[in-house]
Amino acid sequence: MESESPDSDKLIHSSTTACEQKHSRGVHNLVRLLSEPSQWLQMLSDKLNPTFILGVFLVYGLSQGFAGSYFKVVSDYYWKDVQKLQPSAVQVLIGFYYIPWVMKPVWGILTDVFPVRGYRRRPYFVAAGVVGAVSALTLALTGRLSAAVALGCMVGITAGEAIADVTIDACIARNSIEFRALAADMQSLCGVCSSAGSLVGYLVSGLFVHHLGPQGALGVLALPPALLIVLGFVIYELRTSVPRLEQKRAVDKVNVAVGGMFRTMKYPQVWKPSLFMYLSLALSISTHEGQFYWYTDPKVGPAFSQEFVGMIYAIGSLASMVGVLIYHKFLKDYPFRNLLFFAQLLYAISGMLDLIFILRWNLTLGIPDSFFVICEQCVSHIVSKLRWMPMIVLSTKLCPLGIEGTFFALLMCIDSLGSLSSKGGGGLVLHAFHVTRTDFTNLWLVILLRNLLRVATLSLIFLVPMGEQTDTFIPSDILTKNVVVVKSVEDDTIELVPVNQKLDV
């Protein structure tokens, strides 16, 4: 038998080596892909502050993400099965949830100019936790309440979330000014945390409603506020040089903050995009309660179970995370106007999926209800995130240094007013079209009207600036004036400082 030639051995060895190298590169790429999120978090932690990252996780991930999504499902069942209200009435009542969010400028002024024992952020995290925990426990443990008292407790829960949100947003706005290149990264982190928390909240909400009932399940909402109290004691913050402000000095700072806020809002670069953000939310009237009642109706609707409703929203939350990742990877370098135009267009188109579902055209096409609603939730949540993320980034770009907490709170107040208008308008439309607990005949007309209003919003895109997402949109003299005036009232210190400025505590 003839032995193999040396050339043949070299060929086999070369082929084996190539395969090993290809495999090695594949493993290396996989490891790099898996390690990229941790490296990204480490980078943010190094350049900002580890406790800032912790605060984002607890506020956006737990308080807003988990508690917000869990509260949405459980409160829907509470109004429907315990209070037994009509969908149009619930739609209007839900609008009251936004009152604490509308008051965000008030919380912003408090955190900016009224420190407690020299701290401007810590005490407000504690206060937010106390308000939220007491409200949740009252709802869960005091028996059946009147609708008015129950609404007051639910507003208390959202008030705790709003106060904590303002406090961490002030830190985000400050860091977005000092680290402009990281503004989009910070919003991506907030979006990922919020979506991940929402995913968990939606997944477990249906199970808790099924086993504890809607009222008992509300007791779980006391846990996130309790952790906010802990956050108030551990978050890194430098104590101000003056432990207690005199009354006159505090009033002076309020006047400075309010004056700077109105001076900034007068600029077209600020009020035009703010108006667009409000109208884009207000014109898209909410039909959530009508659809929720229809989802769970055993006669004319698909009769989804409590667990499946939670799973639907959970999958939507997972899709929101995908939307955040798409924005972070591919869209954060596009101009604001172009990005928001196409996002709004997709938002209007995706709304037609609700119309198809309500008219049951999916069954005509042979698509089961469960599969279709999951697909619809994925598409709508991805598009909603692609539309929302650039709006938030734009909001941080409009904040002047020195009153960043107050002004960002004002912008978020405008958004909350838009959401309140959306909820209230949706409730009025549901009532006008006679959509009730058992009659959904005209629900499709309500959804069609909502979609037409979304299309109409495209005509307002000229209000959005053409600039890049790394650009500065407000005149530099505003920043200088606000900093000089605020510093003249009190020598402030930034509460969450870069790593190279950290002190041991």
TrEMBL record:
Give one Pfam family, short name only: BT1
Cellular component aspect of the GO annotation? membrane
Keyword tags: Membrane, Transmembrane, Transmembrane helix, Transport
InterPro entries tied to this protein: BT1, FBT, MFS_trans_sf
Membrane-traversing stretches: 52-73, 85-103, 124-141, 147-168, 189-210, 216-238, 275-296, 308-327, 339-361
Q: Indicate where this protein is primarily found.
A: membrane
- Cellular localization per UniProt: Membrane
Topology versus the membrane: Multi-pass membrane protein
Per the similarity annotation, which family is this? Belongs to the major facilitator superfamily. Folate-biopterin transporter (TC 2.A.71) family.
The name this protein goes by in its record: Folate-biopterin transporter 6
Originating species? Kalanchoe fedtschenkoi
- What lineage is on file? Eukaryota, Viridiplantae, Streptophyta, Embryophyta, Tracheophyta
